[in-house]
Every structure is written in structure tokens, then in C-alpha cells.
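ping. complex inputs:
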Amino acid sequence: MALKQKIVVIGGGIAGIEASSILSRMDYDVTLIEKTDNIGGHVAQWDRLFPNQRKSDEIIEYLKANIPSNLKIKLNTTVSTIAKNNTSFVVSLSDNELIETDSILISTGYDLFDAKLKEEYGYGIYDNVITSAELEKLFRENKPILTKSGKEPQRIGFVHCVGSRDRKINNIYCSKVCCVTAVKQAIEVRQKLPYSEAYCFYMDLRMYGLSFEEIYNESQEKYGVTFIRGRLSEAAENKEGQIIVKVEDTLLGRPMKMTMDLLVLMVGMTPSEGTSGLIKMLNLETNSSHFIASKDEHTQSNITSHPGIFVAGAATSPKSIDDTLADARGAVVKILEYLNSNAQ
Amino acid sequence: MIEDGKKQLWAQYQKEIADDKYYYARSCIRQNFFPGAEEIFLKVLRQNLNKDIYDDARQTTCTGIGYHSAIVPLETTMTVVARQFSLMNELGYENFVCSCVTSFGIYSEMLETWHEFPETLEKTKENLYKATGRTFKLPKNLVHASDVIYKLRMDILPQLKYKLVNAKTGKPLNVVEHIGCHYAKIFPHKGVGGAEYPYVLAGLVDAWGGKLVDYPERRHCCGFGFRQYLVKANRGYSYSHSLKKFESMQPYDVDLIITNCPGCNYFLDRWQYVAAESEHKLYGVDGKAIPVLTFEEITALLLGYNPWEIGLQMHQIPVEPLLDKLGISYSKEDKYLNTKGPEIPELLNY
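pong. complex structure:
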């Protein structure tokens, strides 16, 4: 009987779990490498998902329930080096284990944009400026939404495109999920704080997905969320710790100055530390958004510039959960084609 | 306010500042409106800090005001800037220090343009040679005069006779700093502390005992804005911008405003006077206006120089409330001393 072909999957987010589970169920010898102490990636940190506010844990539970027993998962482990050995690769891990593998799938995903880089918004300097991830953490832990001084905020502002579509910080791409996440979070804030006001400061609203437009309409009609088309020029703190925002309402053509009790920055996606590390380690080509470049963005989107090394999920560009899972399944097909052609 | 967050950011925006042998480029506005400021800067550097700084009578305007008013073309500004550098080269200096924030912006912009578009540097060399027969080399170090004081602030500290502290209460004075748009907004990495949370003057306030006031309109223009004031019909814009700042800082009981740019000093000083006269509105503590001093003036004042010898009588807002808070004794008559003796005008009540 021929030896099982091996695959190393790097990154235990939802793309890595989905792809490694499918390949394992097909009886390949798969090792999933995850740098943290748990799998699930960013989705496991989130509370509820757009557009239907289902619990993100449902996704993680579904994926975990489908993990076959033969999938080897190595937690708290990182990749130290990858060396080519004829048609195979030797992957050296942080625990000194060496794995010889026929193929590698990179599913190292994204990191959230460091909001401190948008200095003018005052994240890390003003007490009442937080990120969308921090707000989601409050939701997840069922903690009250309070200002630094312990009061319920009356006015909450959501700033779209923080770290996305921004030439000043050289991130010209759209992070795809922030617009609809802002709508989702604004609705949740209004549900939890019925007497509050919620404002979204946006450039364009990119409501491209199934039911996105519906929740955008619902946010206005049912929850009274106000949408102001304009990019913040700056945020400043007043003596009471409130956040004064300056923005131009580009529909009215008027500059505005508004006072917020809490400002939420909708941080976008950037290549994760792991993704950037592998780009450097393997000398992978990158695309205009600094993520891993596919061999062909339309027809070979899971194939990298190196034969035998594949990529799935947000390591190539920002993606939603459903796009990520579909991409992971697409990567599995390409890996199978590659392994079959090598076996013949 | 998360002070540690600011400190982390400040650490990212530090720059090289030469520690001696400076060539000084004066400011058109500063030497006319606050002539004591430049004189005392030179004196403090030479006498208190034992530094070599050259004050060259041959230099001209940097063209900044004309340039930003669209009167002087870019090529002319480049050639004038090149001539200033040529004068410095001739004397063997390499460290160029600008008195004016507008000039600092101009010199930085020209250096950056020459770096990004080398053909403009070649053209400038040609223009300068044709016009004056001169050649020039770029400075090794280009800074604003406040950068030098910032760098030497801890050397100055042991010499201070006064701190930014209320002598009666022992509490730190509430100090607003205003760095001027052209110091860091054009090139954030060329300003100490960057553009959003600048530290060049805040560092002096920290080191010398004051309490920095971070008010919502801190980043806003002083009101000069060049054509907001230079075009007479626009002066309402200039005034309203300054008022926006005063209104924003008022809840913080500000004792003192320190400025980086002579233009900012002029407008933050003068428009307070206008507000007091035309609207009976005062923005300082105890029904007083807020004294507005340049960074050179406050340095000299704390070092113990006579307020009237460093030209504080040139400000429209009286500085006496500040002198009283600092515990500095002064002669009321000497403020109005001129060649004919003291001429005391009708005193302003703020």
C-alpha cells in the first residue's frame, strides 16, 4: 500500500480548519499548525455575525464537529523554516519537530489594522476611542457599554474605513466586512442602549452581500441609526472626556463638528504577522494590497508563485466568513489536483 | 487622556538636532513684531549655553509669505533658499536654524522637492549661479530654533530662576502650546513629536514644571492662514479661527500660551485684544486675557532676564498677570521706557 500523501496546513482559523478537515476526511496525512492555544482564529473572538446576528460560536462549533480524528493539530506552534526537498518540503517547527510534506497550505489570514497608526483619531490616547473588535469583545463577554467614567454613552460614533481605502497609510484596498459590521454593531448598541444615538461616518456603504442591504435599511428605519457620508478629519478630547469629531458631510457639502461619548473605529484587515512572515520566509510574491499574490487572481486564486504551496482565506485579501470557507474548499480541490498529478 | 499613549507616539517622532555651530536664519515677522525674541535667543545660546551661532546680516526673507500668497513663484523661492545656504557654506557652517516656522516649512519643502525631483536642484544651481555667481551645498542639519531649545531644555533647567509654577499656590501653570501649521503638518517626521501630538513645546512645559493643556481645538490654525489675513476682506475668517481656539481652551483656565511661530504669536495675541475691545470677551483666568509668549521669550523669562529687556511690552495682551503668577518682580514704569523716558499710555484693564 502506498504511503499517504502529506499536507501541512499553517494557520488554524476557519480556512485552515475547513481545508484540513476535508483533506483528513479524504484520508490524507494532514497536520494543522496553530500558533495560539486554540483554533478558530478571529471568528472565535467575535460575538455575533452579520447579517443575521447568529452567534459566531455556531460556526466554530460546526467546524470543530466536523474535524476527523485523524487530523493532527499542533497548538502553540509556529513554523521556523521551510526547505524544499525535490518535490517535497521539510517544515521545521518551533518545538523542533520536522515534518516532510508533499504540499503546504497557507491559511494564516489577517491581523486587525493597528488603529494607533491613524494618529488623528486618538486611539490609545483618548479614553473613549475604541475599536470595533473591542466593542465586539464587550458584546461577547456580555459586559455593559460604558464610557471610561462609567456612564452609559448617549452618542456613539462609528468610523468606517479605519486602515482601509486610505492612501495616507498605504492601504488602498477595501476590507469588505467593516461597513456591514458597523451596521450590525450600531443596531446592537441601539438594542442595548435604547436611549442612545448612533452615527456612522462612511465613505461609501458597500452592502454587497445577501441581506446586507436589508439590515442597512432596518438600522435606519427600526433603530434610527444616522449615516453621515464623510471621512473624519480628526478626533479630539474635551475636558469631560467626550470625543469631538470633525467631519464633512459630503452630501450636504457642510463641515460638521459633533460631540460623541464613545467613538468606535471600524478597523480593517492587514496581512497577519504569520502571513507576512511566510511571505518573507518563502519569498512569495505579494499583491497590491500587500497580501500573498495568487498565481492568477481569477482562475488560480489558491495557487501561489511556488508549486506545491497553496493559499486560502484572508491571506490573499480581506474576506468574509462565507468567502473564506468557499476559498478553503477551492484550495482543497487545487491541492488534490496537485497531489494526484505528482503521484502519477 | 492616556498619557502613556502620547509618550509612545512621541518616541516615534524624534529627529536629529545638531548640538552646536549653528547658522541662524531670522524671521521677517519675528524680528519686526517681537524683536526681543530673536535677540534673546542668540544671547541665551551664546551666554547661557556657550554655543556658536552665527547671525548673518546678508540674509534675506525666505519668501515664505509671498510664496504662500501665490505672489512669489516656486523657482524664485528655490533660488532664494539656495542663496541662504550658499551664505552659510561660505562661513563654514553646516547646521541651519530657522527662526520662523513658515521658513522652516519652506526650507524643508525645498529640500524635499530637490530630493524627490533632482532636476529641480540642478535648475536651482543654474539659476543661483546666473543670478549671483554663487554655488551652494545642502545643510547637514536643518531645524527650527525651538528644536534647539527642546534639545537643550535639560541643560537650561538647572539655570532657571523660575519654573512654570504659580509662586503663590505652588501649582503648575496651565500652559497651551501652539506649534504652527508649517512646523509639522507638512512633514510630520520633521517635527519633534509629529503633527498630531507635537512635543517640541510640550517638552519644554513638561521639563520646566508646567501642566500641558490638551484642548479640543489644539490642532486648529491660529487664524493667520496667510490669505485669511493678508487679503483684507478675509480677515473675519482669521478672527473667527482664533476665537474658535480661545473658546475651546477657555474651560481649562489657561495661564499662558506659548507659540512656536511668530505669526501664530501675533494672531493669538492680537485677536484676544480685538475680542476684548470689540466684544468685551476675555478668555483667561480671573477676568484676564491669556498672555501669549514665544518660546524664546518664556525661556529667557524663566532664566531671569528682565521682561522689558526681552521685549515683552511688544505684546498687546499684558504679561503682568503671568509675571505675578511666576513671582517675577518688575518695574511698571520700565515697560514704557523709550529714549525720551517713560511714556505711560492709557492702561489696558486685562
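Chain B is about 45% helix and 10% strand.
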